[in-house]
Every structure is written in C-alpha cells, then in structure tokens.
Design a protein that fits this description.
Helices cover 65% and strands 11% of the residues. The chain has 265 residues and is mostly helical. α6 runs antiparallel to α8. The longest helix is centred in the last third of the chain and has 34 residues. The protein starts with 13 loop residues before the first strand and ends in a 5-residue tail after the last helix.
C-alpha cells in the first residue's frame, strides 16, 4: 500500500500492525480500525504495509483439539482390542516353545492409521502383556529368560515390541508417499508388523540368550547348524502364518478403515 499523507486508505475493521517497508521493521504501533478510514499511521513511515496484528486461531485450535481427542479415542480403542484379545486368549496360540501371536494385526492397523508414535504405544502395551507372561511363567521360554536376566527379558518383551510398532508406522508413512494409488502400501504395512516382530524378537534371543541351556536344547532338537538356521527352523510355518495373517487381515482392514475415514490420500 502506498497511501498519501493526508488521504489514508480504506481499511477494514480489525486490529492491525504497521510494517515499514524501507526499514524492514515493524513499527511499534498497533491500532484497531472502527470505521472505514483511519489516521493512525505514524507520520515518519513513508512507505508501509498494513497487516492484521492478531490472528483469530480459535477455529484452528478447536479443530486441533478435536483431532487430538479423536486420535486419543482411537488409540484407546486399539489398546482395548489388544487387552481383550489377550484376556480372551484370541491373541496367541502356543506352538512348541514359541507362541503364534495375532496381536500384530491391531498393532499394524493402529500404526498405519494413527502414526509411528501411536504404533509404539500399542507395541508397548502388547509388550507389557508379554512381560506379564514371562514373570508369571505363562510362557515357558520367556519365563526361563526372566530367571536368567530380568533386564534383558524386559528389553525382549517390551522394548522390542515398542520398536516394532514404531517402525511399522514409520515405514508405512514412507511407503504411502511412494504408493500413488494408496493400495499396496497397506498390505505392506500389515506384513511389516509381524515381520519386524519375528526378526527383532528372534534376533535378540540369538544375540543374548543363544548360549543358554534352554536355547541350546532347542538347537539340538531342530538340528540347527547355526543361529540363522535356528531362527528359520524354530519359526518355520508359524512365522509364515503370522506374516500371511498380517498381510491379508491387517492390510485389508487398514485399507477399508482408512477409506471410510477418508485418510487414504
């Protein structure tokens, strides 16, 4: 705006601040226009621009609050699903020394729909239930590990599962940007949760507990020549079922929910 000294421009009602375009500074003058014209401009400012001094952010803040509340509610729903699956026994099926778990499905869906941080929270909740099994002896293998090293067992059960949820959400965000049609990225995300769980869980067992009596008995039983073959032989069909379940169920449900909530863009 280039106003004349004695002919101030028409300005809408509202609060304004003045910026001196020559000096590149904000002139310390904030005023409120109550009519169509104003003489509140400082005389020393020859060339200036008028901008709103205050921004009405109440609507934006309300939208952010509603969004945060919705996300917290959805997170609570996923946590409830994980706990209900655990209580009812739907979360896992014992297979030999390991447990075939289907809890990775809601963790994958939650991580894809809500984000990496929320995926980490879901993984943490599942990790606590896994740690509970280790402490009570409900899981023979992790119960044995807990007697040897409680700290490493906590890392195995809780930290690893938290990392699984976080990595699933993080990788999905990257894949979603690559997938222009927003289709295969959901199935890849559904696959990643059980895949990360298997790799990180068994990898930590090999790293920390491979020399223990419990694991060495399994090594002899399956005839594994090295740690890598031990993971493959022990996980076997169980791992493939978990991966396939995550791929089909996790990907399909996440895609359907994202489409219904208009989040697949």
């Amino acid at each position: 705006m280039y106003p004349k000294k004695n002919n101030p421009p028409l300005v809408e009602r509202g609060s304004y601040a003045i910026i001196d375009l020559f000096a590149g500074e904000i002139v310390p003058c904030t005023f409120r226009v109550k009519g169509r014209r104003t003489n509140a401009f400082p005389s020393q400012t020859l060339v200036y621009a008028v901008y709103p001094a205050k921004r009405n952010t109440s609507k934006e803040e309300n939208m952010n609050n509603r969004s945060n509340l919705r996300k917290m509610t959805e997170l609570a729903i996923f946590i409830t699903i994980i706990l209900v699956m655990k209580i009812t026994g739907l979360s896992s099926i014992p297979v030999g020394p390991l447990v075939m778990t289907f809890t990775m499905v809601p963790i994958a869906i939650g991580a894809m729909l809500l984000g990496p941080a929320e995926g980490a929270v879901l993984g943490f909740v599942y990790g606590l239930t896994s740690l509970y099994d280790a402490m009570t002896g409900a899981s023979a293998m992790t119960g044995f590990f807990f007697q040897i090293s409680p700290v490493h067992t906590i890392i195995l059960c809780v930290v690893v599962r938290t990392l699984v949820g976080f990595l699933t959400g993080l990788c999905f965000k990257t894949l979603k940007k690559i997938d222009k049609k927003k289709i295969w990225c959901y199935y890849a995300g559904g696959l990643m949760a059980p895949m990360f769980n298997t790799i990180l869980f068994m990898g930590y067992i090999v790293l920390v507990f491979y020399k223990t009596e419990f694991v060495q008995n399994l090594v002899s039983k399956v005839g594994a020549a090295n740690p890598f073959m031990f993971i493959i032989l022990v996980v076997g069909i169980q791992g493939m079922i978990e991966w396939l379940t995550g791929l089909v169920a996790g990907g399909t449900v996440a895609k359907a929910v994202a489409h219904a909530l208009k989040r697949d863009n």
